[in-house]
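Sample intake sheet
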Amino acid sequence: GLGAPGGGCGMPPSVWCQDWVTALRCGALGRCPHLTQGHPDVDVCAVCQQLVSLLQQASNQSATEVVGILCPRPPVVVTQCQALVLMFVDHLLWKIQHLNPRQVCAALKLCRGEPGAAPAAPALEAPGT
């Protein structure tokens, strides 16, 4: 799953931090500060919470529709957003309905300063795991 580093992602640790999608798939976001810090003008925690809230509202839409809703803004994170949404949308829409957006983002280590962030939400797993 996404909670344990490496957790069957099929990639060696040397490439876990190459991009957001790989780090998330390998459960390594917490080990990749350059990915979670994001652009200095972007509050990654707030963007994550907004994406989670929008995903909760989009539970009856297709992956393509969700990408169109979630990823046109801000341009700094469009590519990562599209890749993440397409990879996880079906699984996330099913799991995310009853989760708190702040807890989800804290569990993904995208919100700094959250005490006990890792256990705040159940571990999310990649589709098919």
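Comment: The helical segments are 20-25, 33-37, 44-57, 63-70, 78-95, 101-107. Residues 78-95 form the longest helix (18 residues).
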